[in-house]
Amino acid sequence: TLNDGSVASGMVTDDGETYTVRAAGGVSQSVKKSDVKTRQVLDISMMPMGLLDAIPQKEVIDLIKYLTTEH
């Protein structure tokens, strides 16, 4: 929650004086740390439920391997 009452949600990167918040859909927002009133870590994933259900299991495994490998 920001000082003005608005909410920024997404994946957060600490950039020193600011946070970069990447929301679903790839939209990024830069937020000054001084503008942040509270931060909260959610217990649920931003990934929509059932998203991987339409993908063959082998492709899911390949995707997870790719995402967990340093590039």
Structural account:
- The protein has 71 residues and is an alpha+beta fold.
- The chain has one helix and three strands; from the N terminus they run E-E-E-H.
- It has one helix at residues 57-67; strands at residues 11-14, 18-22, 28-32.
- It has a three-stranded antiparallel sheet with strand order 1-2-3, with no helix packed on it.
- A hairpin with a 5-residue loop joins strand 2 and strand 3 (28-32).
- The radius of gyration is 16 Å and the shape is elongated.
- 0% of the residues are buried.
- The model has no long low-confidence stretch (mean pLDDT 91).
Summarize the structure in short.
The protein has one helix at 57-67; strands spanning 11-14, 18-22, 28-32.
Instruction: Specify the helix fraction band.
Output: 10-25%
Query: Low-confidence stretches at least 5 residues in length (pLDDT < 50)?
Result: none
Shape: elongated
Alpha-carbon distance between the termini?
A: 33 Å
Q: What is the string of helix and strand elements?
A: EEEH
Tell me about the largest β-sheet. Answer: 3 strands, antiparallel
Assembly status: single chain
Query: Helix tally?
Result: 1
- Give the class from helix and strand content and strand pairing: alpha+beta
- Lateral arrangement of strands in the main beta sheet: 1-2-3
Please, what is the average pLDDT?
A: 91
**C-alpha-based Rg, rounded:** 16 Å
Number-wise, the strands total 3
Strand content: 15-25%
Brief descriptors of the model:
single chain, 71 residues, 3-stranded antiparallel β-sheet, 20% strand, 1 helix, alpha+beta, elongated
